[in-house]
User: Fold this.
Amino acid sequence: MTDPACNLVTRRTFLAGLGASVMLVACGGSQITVLSPKDRGAAPPVGSLGESTNRVLVVVELGGGNDGLSMVVPHGNDRYHDLRTTTRIENPIDLDGEIGFHPNLAALADMYLAGEVAIVEGVGIPNPDLSHFTSMDRWWTGAADSTRRAGWLGRYLDGTVGYEDPLAGIVIGPGPTPAMLGDGSFTVAISDASGLTPNVPDWIDDVDELMAMWRGFVPEAPSAIDLSPVQRAIEASVDARDALESALGLPTARAGRPARTDLTEQLRIAAQLIASSVSPTVIYVHGFGDFDTHLEQVRRHGELMTALNTALAEFFALLDDSGQRDRVTVLTASEFGRRARENGGGTDHGTANAQLVIGSSVTGGRYGESPSLTRLDTNSNLIHTVDFRSLYATVLDGWLETDHIGVLDGEYEPLGFFS
Assistant:
């Protein structure tokens, strides 16, 4: 029986552009999409990477290249003030005499002082590339090159739940993310009602390139599709729809819902799912803001920091209310930082960056090594001190309780921000 509260009934379709096998449900102005790639036989066997955990990882993607030197400000370093004569942060919230948070990150500063925020400094990619998509592809896949198609979190889901739990991994944002693409697991994306060509984030310059990134959710030749995982996706999606409708209250919340690229609303949905019977293991939030601050950086980045602070403060307050705080860790991700020297009103694409890991189970403090502001590379960019896969490895081993070697196809030094 079709739910009369839904304005689009369940529908299976194969798309020539994305080529994706999808299950669409639009209720209350929201679109829920379940995507399944063709099983290419490369997925690790279910259970080979451990069992699904009761813990939840929430990844918040700061797309466009967040300026780590304005988020985590090295105010005690005179060279910082020389490099940023018009864009420097004058009044950071001091954390230890050397670094401070952007003044609009007061809630995060309080959490840091309470020991619940790990600041990982100097995070970067070997042989960095300043292209948004090349860099994001590496962050999405957890690989130093672009040869592997599965995402790092998709591979984790492959080896823990496979096709058995379509709600273990959920994306909140304008479409799917390759980070959650598996070779043998589902991805559920919750977005607004803008359809399969969504309103993309402002930092996306080339929509065609974005669509190409999504091609991994489908075999290249539609005629070669193995229908068995698709059929399983359709069957599982019926249950997924019902569970998500109930968890999100979609039929009763149609009027005036904010756009899903509002981070506060996105994290409200995440908190709601965590407290519900759905209870996913991984939630990936993306499409928030434009961190590509070539121009007007002081104003634009300040607004983004306010939005990030407000959203995370409310998110953790909601987790406190539901008693779920101890089950959740938040990880930030951004394809690269910004150049050390300003360009006159903003900053250009850079390399090394700071990332945050937030939660009551995190051993707070500073990790990694601050990149030198005087010893730059040949392009006058910061030299990274921490391989981004060490950040992933620590989250995989310490929080998701799996062996990072099986996910990342290699061994990387853990950073120790989980006891």
